[in-house]
Specification:
This protein has 175 residues and is of the alpha/beta class. It has helices at 19-30, 49-59, 103-106, 109-113, 162-170, and strands at residues 2-3, 12-16, 38-43, 80-83, 90-94, 117-121, 135-140, 152-158. The radius of gyration is 15 Å and the shape is globular.
Amino acid sequence: MTGERPTASEVLSLHLPDAEATAALARRVAAQVRPGDVIALTGDLGAGKSTFARGFIHALPDPQGTYRDEHVPSPTFTLVQTYDRWPAPVWHFDLYRLGDPSEVVELGWDEARDGGIVLVEWPDRLGPLAPRNRLDVTLVLPDEGDPDAAGRTAVLQGGGSWIDRVDALASGGDG
């Protein structure tokens, strides 16, 4: 994983050469997470959103402090999966199939935001429900026409309490 160190108000861009680098970034973000946090995962199909989510969820212990390598499916068809983790339950939303932002409320959005940790794929489907205080993680695949391109680029931008934590991620800090 390579990247430039920005100031706290800038965007952090990192080259992720493979799926393990994507999971490693997710573990770094998990080390910064707090109850009430929202992490918005954006990218084309196959860009690595679910890989990031799996790495993130596996990086957090259960409430007894045990790290479990449990199966973490993409919630494409269930729309939401929950995981009993510390420091708070993790709610993994996949909103790709949502037609209207109000539908996310029926999936437990308010409950998830009330002390949980939220990973949300396809956050653009949230519309006005998207919180300002969030970490945006955009995963960008290389251009198909570039034969030398490999991996993907992760672009991180924090709002609210995430601004300083993105700066810590840029410096390699874990919190």
